[in-house]
Write a structure and sequence with these properties.
394 residues; alpha/beta; Rossmann fold; six-stranded mixed sheet; four-stranded parallel sheet; 14 helices; 13 strands; 37% helix; 16% strand; globular; binds zinc ion; Threonine synthase
Length: 394
């Protein structure tokens, strides 16, 4: 594999064993998730370099990625805007609210960042088949990147996955299995059906998905002129986004490009909140959630693969966790569209609703800068948002 100068290898987050870039999954010694490490002394970047060349998307940050941009499987993901949200700023009664609009990625989700890096690794290792189980957005993103890399792809999605996700996964080609039930049923079916030689690109199985997500932190810092926000509110399911964003900010601090890491907030739906509940109870690892019930399918992750790492990320940043009702998530996504002109999916509405709840509880200082992470385009859940509107009699 062709790796970057500063890339040092993959470390097991549980036992500390080290591996090179070719290790395809979790730690062969203990089963823990692997994480890319770097020799930060060998990273030759400054604020100017990290702010330049936005048209190259997240691969402009390749000095801090495992693979060089020349090897990237990319459709120019990343480089999404920070959009000012003046009405949210007034309503939350804080100094500034900005939306990091990652719904503008190629398939409309933050997941594209991770799949670009993970597919780059897969292509470099000459994988012939890749697979993932997903509530829906992940299958679509995998299909896009695997199709571009001309690698066969096999996704497992629950029947309740949205029409949009299933349709676009089909359009990108490949093999999609629709499994009756919910996301855990798709995970189970994948475990039974995956064939020898298929490379598993599940989050925290491949080491590279949260690695792509970390570029969000670089873009937020650069977009705010290297002023670290007071809080970043992250819709949280598997933990991939939260862990990625925390790593990115921690790296910037190691490189002395920012002074501190922001407070991270994990926002989950009340109907499936294993990470928020574990945080409230002071646990080191979430307990699997039984009887999940939320309209936010992307966040209906009962047994999050990155749960333990997500709780560590919250602890490292003096963070917070919040659980919100589905109706509040839908109302927040509706408000973003109606009053700010920002299209936000229902799953991302969980972050906005979470920020509202924390503001009501007095968690933000009056001059705080709060970043809401919009992880999903509004068009992904247009049916849900329209139904919500009709439920209000509009
Ligand atoms: Zn290990």
């Amino acid at each position: 594999m062709n790796t970057t100068e500063a890339f040092a290898g993959l470390d097991c987050t549980d036992c500390g064993a080290t591996f090179d870039a070719t290790e395809p999954g979790r730690c062969p010694d203990c089963g823990g998730p692997l994480d890319a490490t770097y020799d930060y002394d060998a990273v030759d970047v400054d604020r100017e370099a990290l702010s330049a060349r936005p048209h190259e998307g997240l691969w402009r940050f390749d000095a801090l990625l495992p693979f060089p941009a020349s090897e990237a499987v990319s459709t120019a993901e990343g480089a999404t805007p920070l959009v000012e949200a003046p009405r949210f700023t007034d309503e939350l009664d804080v100094g500034r609210v900005v939306v990091k609009d990652d719904g503008r990625n190629p398939t409309g989700t933050t997941l594209d960042r991770g799949f670009s890096v993970a597919m780059t690794a897969a292509a470099q290792s000459n994988a012939e088949d890749v697979t993932v189980a997903s509530p829906g957005n992940g299958a679509q993103s995998l299909a896009a990147y695997a199709g571009r890399a001309n690698v066969r792809h096999h996704s497992f999605v629950p029947s309740r996955s949205t029409f949009h996700n299933k349709a676009m996964t089909n359009v990108h080609g490949g093999d999609m299995r629709v499994v009756g039930g919910r996301y855990p049923d798709a995970v189970e079916e994948k475990a039974e059906d995956v064939l020898d030689g298929w490379l598993d690109l599940q989050e925290f199985t491949t080491p590279y998905r949260h690695e792509g997500v970390k570029t969000l932190a670089y873009e937020i810092a650069a977009g705010l002129d290297w002023e670290v926000p007071d809080a970043v509110v992250v819709p949280t399911g598997t933990g991939e986004f939260l862990v990625g964003v925390e790593k990115g900010f921690r790296e910037l601090r190691s490189l002395e490009l920012v002074d501190e890491v922001p407070r991270l907030v994990a926002a989950q739906p009340e109907g499936c909140a294993p990470i928020a509940t574990a945080w409230e109870r002071g646990l080191d690892a979430p307990e699997p959630w039984s009887g999940p019930d939320t309209i936010c399918g992307e966040l209906e992750i009962t047994d999050p693969a990155g749960g333990e790492l997500a709780l560590q990320a919250l602890a490292e940043t003096d963070g917070a966790a919040v659980a919100v009702a589905d109706d509040d998530a839908l109302e927040s996504a509706y408000s973003a569209a109606r009053y700010e002109g920002i299209e936000m999916g229902a799953n991302a509405g969980v972050a906005a609703a979470g920020a509202w709840k924390l503001a009501d509880e007095g968690e933000f200082a009056p001059d705080a800068t709060v970043v809401l992470l919009n992880t999903e385009a509004g068009g992904k859940s247009s049916d849900l948002l329209r139904s919500h509107l009709m439920g209000k009699g509009i």
